[in-house]
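Example complex used in Figure S2.
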Amino acid sequence: MSVRQASLRWPVTDGIEERVIGQRVVDVTRRAKYLIIKLEKGSILVHLGMSGSLRVVEPKAEWRKHDHIEVSFGNGAVLRYHDPRRFGSWLWSLGDHHQLMHLGPEPLLSEFSGEHLWKRSRGRKIAVKPFIMDNKVVVGVGNIYASEALFRSGIRPDRSAGRVSRKRYDVLAGHIKDVLKAAIDQGGTTLRDFVNSSGEPGYFQQTLSVYGRGGKQCVVCDSVLREIRLGQRSSVFCPTCQR
DNA sequence: ACACTAACCTGCAAGC
DNA sequence: TGCTTGCAGGTTAGTG
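Predicted assembly (243 residues):
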């Protein structure tokens, strides 16, 4: 492994290059937005942030701007990590996976449900949008998908999480699952410089009803979509369809 | 315990 | 045209 730029979201774990030498890859899994590359005596936790990508390149391929890390395998393959905004991370973990310990359920599993959201939100005053974006509540729901799921559910993003009914949380959990599945089917949402592992953009942005459409007309009722800020994130909603 | 803000970084777009 | 400013994204440390 060779680290050219160690200054990512967090500093790349000191000494990671030496620690991985000679170790076999035992398994590759995922938890939340972390890729877990399990070696014989520990794991590499890779997060792509918002602009990170992994690509297999020719051995000795020239380093492009924003290529920060590469891993050379025993069979000659070379994996290159590219990340213009450096919001990703490469951390070495000895099994405890400190970063992953307090995460909520995966959104596409049955443990994530309206009941879960309802239980976790009782007594909470936080707005429902930052609530569902909280990794301790459920993982994987970023700003785009939170905005779209709330629109489909008819829930205003600034409503108190504790004041959303059990029934509406059932609806919301269903839409979160649907929005995520649809986005995955369409290869993700391309904002500016995103590309997938084949270098292709995603197409889900063609399906967005509210995200990035502040001031435009609601696709359902033609009202002007409102844009507010919640937890430093822009939040667009329809004042007529969402209550 | 909870709510909220700032910070990390770069490229792009809007405004002057 | 060229400069400056603000925003986007995911996550967590820090403050109240």
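The first strand of chain A starts at residue 2 and ends at 3. Residues 2-93 of chain A form a domain with the N-terminal domain of MutM-like DNA repair proteins fold (CATH 3.20.190.10).
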